[in-house]
Amino acid sequence: MPARPSLVIQAVLVDDEQLACDELSFLLKDFPDIEVQAVGNNGLQAVELIEEFEPDLVFLDVQMPGMDGMSVIRALREKQGSLPYFVLVTAFDNYAVEAFRLEAMDYLLKPLDKDRLAETIERVRRYVADKQPADASNAAGSAIAPKPALQRNKVLVKSGTRNFIVDAQDIIYATIEDGLITVVASNLEGQSNYRTIEELQSNLDPELFWRVHRSYLVNINRIREVVPWFKSSYQLRMDDKKQTEIPVSRVQTKRLRMLLKL
How many structural domains compose the chain? Predict the structure, then answer.
């Protein structure tokens, strides 16, 4: 049995044509480092699968019912979370300019050419490898941000018309919705002027703050309880006044088990 690749690239395929999905799935079997997590058949399903599985790579058809491939990328970008690499797959060549304007990694025409697909996969490998944390043995993996040059001990939080300075260690969790980051601290809740969760995370202690979900950053010292959830996943009950329950993404569930020996 061949050895499992040291770097596994998680992928989601979305195409409303079953034959096209089957063809791509078949071709990807020749690339053992590509692991297909899920397959969808429309744009709305694409958004749901990407948010649930948090893949590294998405092969996305352009013309689909409900929401086309371009709209999928726009919708996810508006949420300002971390995005996978997108490879658009279509029978039409007139979307290429728009695809690259949306920073798609590549644009493949149907019927797929195996050699051309191999070029794309090689490019994906380079990009994903560059994103890997320096210490691959870290139990929390890429959920914890690389150690920044300067960590901030204080964070500005706006509540009402007032600006408060909050000790970083007093932050319980932060979440983003509609492009707005809310910070919940021991005795305060308000908005941060950071634009993304990644930006906030990169300025905080990576040993303390953990990105457990695309939309949530938590202080691991303020986790009160780990609550079993559906499909062998978990929620974290936090140590705030509301005892907020925060979902742990499927990817981070694996790291949670390693971190807490579940």
Answer: 2
Q: Are strands 188-191 and 234-238 parallel, antiparallel or unpaired?
A: unpaired
Range of the domain at 229: 141-260
Residues 100 and 149 in one domain: no
Radius of gyration of the chain (CA): 20
Instruction: Give the number of C-alpha atoms closer than 13 A to the C-alpha of residue 133, restricted to the C-beta side.
Output: 15
Contact 246, 209 (CB under 8 A): no
Question: Which tokens go with 220?
Answer: 């691991």
pLDDT digits (tens, 9 = 90+) for 167-198: 999 999 999 988 899 999 998 999 998 888 88
Of 72, 103, 131, the last residue of a domain is 131
Mean pLDDT confidence for 237-262: 83
Residue 36 within a domain? yes
Provide the 8-state DSSP code for 143: G
H/E stretch holding 258 reads: helix 250-260
Residue 136 has phi, psi (to 5 degrees) of -70, -15
